[in-house]
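pasting for the record
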Amino acid sequence: MSLFLFLRGGCTVTVAEQHRTEAMNLCMQMGLQYTDFAWREDGSIQFACSVFSAQRFVSACYKQGVEVNIIAYRGVPKFLNRLRARTGLVVGAILAVALVVLSGLFVWDVQVSGNEELTEGEVIEALRACGFGVGSYLPSLRVREIENRVLMASECIGWLSINTEGTVARVQIIEHIAGERESSSKNPANLVAVSDGQIEYLELYRGNVVVTVGQAVKKGELLVSGLYDSKTGSFRYTRAAGRVMARTERVLTVEIPLLYEEKVYDEVYLQEIELSFFNFSQIFFKNSRNSDILCDIIKYNANLGQLGDNRLPVSLSRTEVRPYQLVERERSAEEALELCYAELAEQLSTISNEVQLLQKQIVTEVGEESVRLVCTLTCIEDIALVQEFEIVQ
């Protein structure tokens, strides 16, 4: 069948052996255009023509008593007629094409790099709070405004860059280091003692030292002044900087009670299932049990697929409820002491690597209600704290 017949709609006509001569003469008289003429095994003939021509030919043959049959319809019109009975399929196909075209205008996935203390979820949540995330409309995206908003809103993010590659947003961050902003200040300042100690040595960068090695100092005492007194009676100000290393004592106390409450869990039940697509979400299961009970609520999020290295913007969240009762238990003194040492190890791990530990002394106290552990640390550490001051004219 020719391309013209396929687009316009064609059909195959057969003529019985005893009527083929009359049929072909009738074709010549009508000026009927046909293609794909062929002889069949039973002596009949067949050819293809347009549906409109076939209808005219059949009508003329019927008037003259010529036996003809249309055995097949082909082409675009037949395909469209078949689709009329499947409206849902047609609508679904149109929506699928529209979705593929339009989805390229939205953010499908947000990928975070450079985070150490912050989780990817925390960074994504900070971005979402500032109006950016999966489902954001790319043509109206003002990346620099969003970056500034996040930096102003978050105390944990020191630098942020958002780069879009197609439908994927790649977010790079540098986390804010504690004390970084304070150290960048240009205001005049002194160095004061953050704790009691005995001076071991000093590393001075700027300022006027007012203590000596071997001197004992109290918390809050001035160590390095940001004020210089010149011989002419005028004053010069600076921002004191440096390290004042001193021998200090730290006391860590851990107390574990012998009587405690333990969670005893009941049967876990499903509370909610939610499907999210871009910024749209739909809850299709919800359990409305009593919400006033003691319970732990756990939410699981799962992405429903990937396209290459990128996640699809479709996720399923499942919320479970774990009801529990608080039951009073009693532990032995040995068990409590073991927990004390575990807690002490956790506290020791938080001490900065810059603190030099000289001596550790541990005293345990076993009482009727609890076990108490007191650890005294002798250290050498920097006790200098930057303290800004105002200049009064």
